[in-house]
Amino acid sequence: MDVKMGPQWEAVLEDEIQKDYFKSLVETIESEYRLNTCYPPSNSIFSAFEYTPFNDIKVVIIGQDPYHGRGQANGLCFSVTDGITHPPSLKNIFKEIVSDIGIAYPESGNLERWAKQGVLLLNATLTVKEAAAGSHQKIGWETFTDAVIKKISEKRTDVVFLLWGGFAKKKAKLIDGNKHHILLSGHPSPLSANRGYWFGNQHFSKTNSFLASKGNSLIDWK
């Protein structure tokens, strides 16, 4: 597995990727990809880092693990490759954006356009076995991505963290709330959204209001 994250991330995480647990994780994932069908494609595992250099981060969205259906996952949380039907959580994200800021419902579910503007789309677990949700949890990915969140908290300021659902909310303890802006809500999955825990959170307009208050450029959520 080629650990390519771009020069800024590789400098920030230099010590982390030299740790024994990470080397063991790489070996495990290489074996999993040899023996099974896994997602995202091996050259997209670190796409979130490649699309959003460390110094460009304005917003962090935290997901749990990649979509486990064929052709869906592209290395960015909640995102799917062009032409793929939008999964239920992504549909609800887009519905909230339409309601919140009044844009048309997007055709493509590929969120590369957000990532290139400084939205780090980070899954806590970066890989998954086909048709087996959560299959690569607790093998080291969470240790790594927790370290990523801590580095952002320590070395950056005025980043907006969007923590959706119980799993993501637990990451708040890794973030210095005095330096950053944390927005919490229910998860966009139908189970949560249909109970009233997602729709109306206005996280997209609130994010841009905060960025504007700090003199930063806004995210075009289209």
Automatic annotation (TrEMBL):
EC number, UniProt record: 3.2.2.27
Subcellular location: Cytoplasm
Enzyme class at the top of the EC tree: hydrolase
Pfam family, one: UDG
Biological process according to GO: base-excision repair, AP site formation via deaminated base removal
Matches recorded under InterPro entries: UDG_fam1, Ura-DNA_Glyclase_AS, Uracil-DNA_glycosylase-like, Uracil-DNA_glycosylase-like_sf
Keywords (A to Z) from UniProt: Cytoplasm, DNA damage, DNA repair, Hydrolase
Function noted in UniProt: Excises uracil residues from the DNA which can arise as a result of misincorporation of dUMP residues by DNA polymerase or due to deamination of cytosine.
Name listed for the protein in its UniProt record: Uracil-DNA glycosylase
Organism: Patiriisocius marinus
Gene encoding the protein: ung2
